[in-house]
Amino acid sequence: MALLSSIRGWQPFTALRFYGSLAVTGLIFAGLDAGSYLLRRIRPEGVDRRRAGQRWLHALSRLAVRYLHAAGILDCDMSALAPLQKDGPQPLVLVANHPSRLDSLLLASALPGMTCVTKASIWDRDVLGSTLRTAGYIRHDTLLRVLGPATERLREGGPLLLFPEGTRARAGAPPGPIQPGFAAIAQRTRLPVQVILIETDSPYLSQGWPFLKRPPLPMRYRIKPGPRLPAPTDETSGRALLAEVETLLTQAGMQPPTA
Nearest to residue 101, comparing CAs of 180, 183, 193, 215? Predict the structure, then answer.
């Protein structure tokens, strides 16, 4: 065991593990995109295809996360999300802080049936974007354009994830100001808002971090549910919800993982 630990800590081997893992993860995502392509060819647009796309995205995301764990690249504890998993997909407005591009992958691996409001630059891509569209992910546009599709996805029975900051945080910095779209969606659908808190000590794929720049390994994450907050009913309760969520996400973004 000590010998294995020594080998894993050897710098050339660490670099090989990291860049090799990027290659393997790329192959997994190529398979993800190929499966999504087939779904679009054999199933017409609609709820059934979106649900199949969500199951496929969940399965391949889970495979990628398990591989990164086994390779010693990632140490991610999501056991606290078990209460959200035990009853299967359920309509909830999920809001989370956004320290890294890995956030959506990790949550997709943990929460089957989830869809997400996604940046237009990702949603419009020919490769990964087409997979997200197959799974019913929503292009982040104006609030008026998001409200209709978001309401539809929630009525289909699964959770909808939003990152209210709108973009990733910079490593070591608190989250930016949050956007009110999630509160408007919750008020329109009368669904509660479930806060998700992501803690990490890794700067990898935070704002400004290059994809090929190797971070300290393993990358440690802890993801846990925060409070579940009732949907706002008017402007006053909406402002109170925004303030509470901003406080919770700011605190999460400034903490390293806790046991």
Answer: 215
